[in-house]
Amino acid sequence: MRQTFQHADFEALTRLWNQFYPEKFRIDPAILRQNTVDSPVFDWGVSRIEENNGEVLAFVAFKRSAAGLFKGPSVDQAHLSAIAYTDPNIAVDLMAEAKRTLRNRGVNKIVFGADSRHFFPGCPVEGRVLCDFLMVEGFESGTEVFDLERDLTNYQPQHQAPEGIELRPLASEDDIVSLRVFLEHEFPGRWLHDAMDKIRAEDRPDCVYAAFEGPKVVGFALIQDSKQKQPIAGGIWRNDLGEKWGSLGPIGVATEMRGKGLGHALLAHALDHLKQSGVDRCIIDWTTLEDFYGRHGFQIARTYKNSSLRLGD
Questions:
Q1: Which of 111, 142, 207, 220: disulfide with 306, CB 3.0–4.6 Å?
Q2: Would you say the pTM of this structure is higher than 0.70?
């Protein structure tokens, strides 16, 4: 029987997910719900679950374009946020139904992952079964992106801030206002949305570690640990990272401050802050900057390939 996510059993969906994906991609029901039906861009109209006598056989979770949330995304694309199945033929049927509906809406492209509140930035190369399925469905692969990880228990920051720069977590409403001004000028798309949304969700500003020049924010890093109410980005792999997990990113500095060592200093001190907060294992997700983060001891933990499908007439 095919049904919508209206009365989804997230315990059952999670069991199927964790059977389908390799161990390092295992999740829990809270994360699955948060990144699907609790997302403001979850697409109820095409997301479907196939069941038989109470057993979940397959599901597809789609999201609409996030163009209404932040600048950048195309309004004519949709995202296949997640998929899992016991029989690929059932998944083919679910995908065919979704593609028909999306095509009739005027959607011309489906991107795997890379959505708002994403699970994956692309197809995980360790998930060979999934990547092969997407290829058969007509998805084309592009560049590789990575999740990077390192143990923080012995981390020692080696980079100091340029003169006149203070590095610390946000602590006040004035700091939040300064952060917004900075992001609107430097990173007015997804990073602005994700940072401000995260502050609202956590109801505290210290999930952002920032570089200040006087009262002015000139750099920021989004940081998380196991005390977070709404883990996002790399934090969704908390089961693999362990109980004392942490994540960092996105991170960026003002245009006029680049090339002065501020990026490395901000990263180093934010990592040390996570360490002092009790984090053992830290992840930086969805990046191509292996060399930059490698200077701080990070190594590739997961590899993904950008994957998308053009919908014809």
A1: 142
A2: yes
